[in-house]
Amino acid sequence: MLFGKEHVERYQATDGEEGHEWQGTTTLILTTKGRKSGLERSTPLIYRTDGGAYVVVASKGGDPDDPQWYKNLQADPEAGVQVKADRFRARARTASTEEKRRLWPHMAEVWPQYDEYQASTDRDIPVVLLEPVG
C-alpha cells in the first residue's frame, strides 16, 4: 500500500497510474509552499470534485491540530495540484459553513473515517476547495 512520500513519488513518476486509485477511493497530489521553509511540500489527499473545484479534507486523522499543508495554504493559498497526469495551479479556500454542510457527506461517502476523525477531536475539521486558476 502506498503512503506518504512513497505515494507522492510513485504518483508523480507514473502520472497517477499508481496512486490515483487508493484504498477504494481516489487521490490527488497537493503541493504547497512551506510557510516557514519556503520549500515545496507534496501531499497525497483524497478528493472529490464539486463543479470545477477539487474538494479535500484537512483531517490529519482527527488530530487536535491542523495538518501542515492546511497551515501552508492559509499562509499562501496558491498551490500546485496533480490529478492523474493533469498538473495545474489552484487557489485554495476553506469551505463556508453552508458549503461544508453540503460537502462533508460527499467526502464521508468515499472515506467514512472522516466522521470518526471529526468525532475524535474538538477541532472543526476544515473542508478545502481547490479552484483551478489561469
TrEMBL record:
<dbReference type="Pfam" id="PF04075">
    <property type="entry name" value="F420H2_quin_red"/>
</dbReference>
<dbReference type="GO" id="GO:0005886">
    <property type="term" value="C:plasma membrane"/>
</dbReference>
<dbReference type="GO" id="GO:0070967">
    <property type="term" value="F:coenzyme F420 binding"/>
</dbReference>
<dbReference type="InterPro" id="IPR012349">
    <property type="entry name" value="Split_barrel_FMN-bd"/>
</dbReference>
<dbReference type="GO" id="GO:0052755">
    <property type="term" value="F:coenzyme F420H2:quinone oxidoreductase activity"/>
</dbReference>
<protein>
    <submittedName>
        <fullName>Deazaflavin-dependent nitroreductase</fullName>
        <ecNumber>1.-.-.-</ecNumber>
    </submittedName>
</protein>
<dbReference type="InterPro" id="IPR004378">
    <property type="entry name" value="F420H2_quin_Rdtase"/>
</dbReference>
<feature type="region of interest" description="Disordered">
    <location>
        <begin position="1"/>
        <end position="20"/>
    </location>
</feature>
<comment type="similarity">
    <text>Belongs to the F420H(2)-dependent quinone reductase family.</text>
</comment>
<keyword id="KW-0560">Oxidoreductase</keyword>
